[in-house]
Write a structure and sequence with these properties.
Length: 328
């Protein structure tokens, strides 16, 4: 019978299980972080969606011109249009996303520790955990995102949708319950690199900074350093996934008369048959650049948004005294 040698000890697996109180605090921190990050950039979020949906007859031609146009025609309320619905969606989305990522990364780390004796996550494993968390969070809250997209595009003064609940009921009544999941497929495909890279780049950048400055605890990093890590993560993730975000928005308003002023074909509202039809027609009719419409305001939006989300999440968790963190 072979025996373990003294120089090959059995790895000790971290069996720490977060308490229900810690889980609840983590959900609160994730929800608040999501609401803060999106509200801070709400005008840019609305402009991005309007630019994504519009066709060749461009009403919104740039960031400054677009914001001025909205402000002049719709006022401050127009700049914040759709933000309440977005927060209703993003608060549970962000809460579930952060919590799920922590549990996925912990499970992967424990398994790696048991198999190799080293539980340190590689950038690829962080991407896998982030992608899984993104798919679950996005799918759980997708109907809210679809309704929010309609409310954001709807022209000021239109009474077709009078609010979040009314819009939801009208969409179901006129288009069926499945309409709430229009654009879901490109969203799933896009969320894999987007959320996956967000977490992978953010965590890897923090580890690199810790090594560069001979630090052992990520809490020793300054808020500015963590904001920089978040900004880098957001810009990389969004660039890779952006064409899928454009397809998602176009599919969400596909066949809807409310979007006719922004995108029409021979005077008729544009309707797509599915994700591939949306990609093919968009490129054929408007060129490859159409897949990146709204990327300018999106960069201005996503860099501070992702940075604020990550840092505020960690700061709120510290304030609440949560026992575990993303990088534990």
């Amino acid at each position: 019978m072979s025996q373990r040698t003294a120089d090959a000890p059995t790895p000790v697996i971290n069996t720490f299980k977060p308490t229900w109180a810690a889980i609840a605090k983590s959900l609160v921190a994730g929800g608040v972080a999501g609401g803060l990050s999106r509200t801070a950039v709400a005008p840019l979020e609305r402009l991005k969606i309007l630019m994504q949906v519009q066709g060749n007859e461009k009403i919104y031609k740039g960031v400054w011109q677009g914001l001025v146009h909205i402000g002049r025609n719709e006022g401050i309320k127009g700049l914040m249009k759709g933000n309440f619905a977005n927060c209703v969606r993003i608060v549970p989305n962000s809460a579930v996303k952060f919590l799920t990522y922590e549990h996925f990364s912990r499970a992967i780390s424990d398994r790696k520790l048991a198999e190799t004796g080293n539980g340190q996550l590689t950038p690829f494993l962080r991407l896998v955990a982030g992608a899984g968390a993104g798919i679950i969070a996005m799918s759980a809250t997708y109907p809210l995102d679809m309704v929010r997209g309609r409310l954001t595009v709807q022209a000021t003064g239109s009474t077709q949708y009078r609010g979040l609940i009314h819009a939801t009921m009208e969409i179901i009544r006129q288009e069926g319950g499945s309409a709430l999941y229009k654009g879901w497929l490109p969203s799933v495909i896009g969320v894999i690199p987007y959320v996956g890279l967000n977490f992978a780049v953010y965590e890897t950048a923090k580890v690199w900074l810790l090594q560069q400055h001979n630090m052992k605890d990520e809490r020793d990093l300054s808020v500015v350093s963590r904001l920089g890590c978040g900004a880098l993560a957001g810009s990389i993730g969004q660039t890779v996934a952006y064409p899928f975000d454009v397809a998602r928005r176009r599919l969400q308003v596909s066949g809807w008369v409310g979007a006719q002023q922004l995108h029409a074909e021979c005077g008729q509202v544009v309707a797509y048959k599915g994700m591939m039809d949306c990609f093919v027609r968009t490129v054929r009719e408007e060129g490859m650049g159409a897949l990146f419409k709204g990327l300018g305001p999106n960069y201005l939006k996503v860099v501070p948004s992702i940075a604020i989300a990550f840092v505020s999440y960690e700061q709120i968790k510290d304030f609440l005294g949560v026992e575990f963190r993303i990088s534990d």
